[in-house]
TrEMBL record:
<dbReference type="InterPro" id="IPR050923">
    <property type="entry name" value="Cell_Proc_Reg/RNA_Proc"/>
</dbReference>
<protein>
    <submittedName>
        <fullName>DUF3662 and FHA domain-containing protein</fullName>
    </submittedName>
</protein>
<dbReference type="InterPro" id="IPR022128">
    <property type="entry name" value="FhaA_N"/>
</dbReference>
<dbReference type="InterPro" id="IPR042287">
    <property type="entry name" value="FhaA_N_sf"/>
</dbReference>
<dbReference type="Pfam" id="PF12401">
    <property type="entry name" value="FhaA_N"/>
</dbReference>
<feature type="domain" description="FHA">
    <location>
        <begin position="146"/>
        <end position="195"/>
    </location>
</feature>
<keyword id="KW-0597">Phosphoprotein</keyword>
<dbReference type="InterPro" id="IPR008984">
    <property type="entry name" value="SMAD_FHA_dom_sf"/>
</dbReference>
<dbReference type="InterPro" id="IPR000253">
    <property type="entry name" value="FHA_dom"/>
</dbReference>
<dbReference type="Pfam" id="PF00498">
    <property type="entry name" value="FHA"/>
</dbReference>
Length: 245
């Protein structure tokens, strides 16, 4: 366990049931992150054996001085906090009823160093987006076919001499994905197993050459994109089976 992990665990034990705690030096982003995770754990409700529902809309109330300090960080802070909520929910197998939303709100009644988290479940229409993370950069997948390789004509180009120009493709239909090796020289592995073609589960890792490609499925509130012939091909693959070896 790292120093930050130890600090966050101790902090979470210190935050009370209302998630209001006074820190004389003012609120730091790590305290907000810990309060959000604690709010998820507190509000988790078992709906069925396979589904634990948690809130998806969060309002973090801050004192004026703390709100001003957080606002200076900019939109990146909201993005990081939202990702922390999603990551913690995934690690605990929690489910959301709609898209995740985190907002910061000034509350003149709070003193500096005090925070409060309000949350509720807001239903909404959720569509899903497939993304791949490569060397710290996130690439959204188009609905249909995405080719990855070192060639300039690939949809996602990677600087790895151990990969072929068109090494692998991912077919994404808006809900499910298939990965297929395109006859590469050095082959393709999915979670450490060599494959020619296989269903691609969320949070799995494709290895080509010296490059690791992490595949994730993330929610978004926009309507789903129109079907394409390539997207139809993904459905046909799931219906007819795939080859994984």
């Amino acid at each position: 366990m790292g120093l930050l992990d130890s600090f966050e665990r101790g902090l979470e034990r210190a935050v009370n049931g209302a998630f209001a705690k006074t820190f004389r030096s003012g609120i730091q982003p790590v305290e907000i992150a810990s309060a959000l995770r604690s709010e998820l754990n507190k509000k988790a409700a078992v709906v069925t054996r396979d589904r634990i529902l948690v809130p998806n809309t969060f309002t973090v109330q801050l004192a004026p001085a703390d709100d001003e300090k957080m606002a200076a960080i900019g939109p990146a802070l909201i993005g990081e906090l939202t990702e922390i909520v999603r990551t913690h929910a995934a690690s605990q197998h929690y489910s959301f009823a709609g898209p995740v939303s985190v907002t910061l709100q000034r509350d003149d009644r709070l003193s500096t160093g005090t925070l409060r988290v309000l949350s509720h479940t807001a239903q909404g229409t959720v569509s899903w987006r497939g993304v791949v993370d490569i060397d710290g950069t996130r690439h959204p997948l188009a609905k249909g076919r995405t080719v990855i390789g070192r060639g300039s004509d690939a949809d996602i180009t990677i600087a790895d001499s151990g990969t072929s120009r068109k090494h692998v493709e991912i077919l994404w239909d808006g809900e499910r994905a298939v990965v297929r090796d395109l006859g590469s020289t050095n082959g393709t592995k999915l979670d450490g197993i060599a494959i020619s073609q296989a269903p691609l589960p969320a949070d799995s890792v494709i290895a080509i050459g010296r490059t690791e490609i992490a595949f994730h499925v993330v929610p978004r509130a926009t309507p789903p994109l129109p079907e394409t012939p390539a997207a139809d091909a993904v459905t046909r693959m799931f219906d007819t089976g795939s080859d994984a070896r």
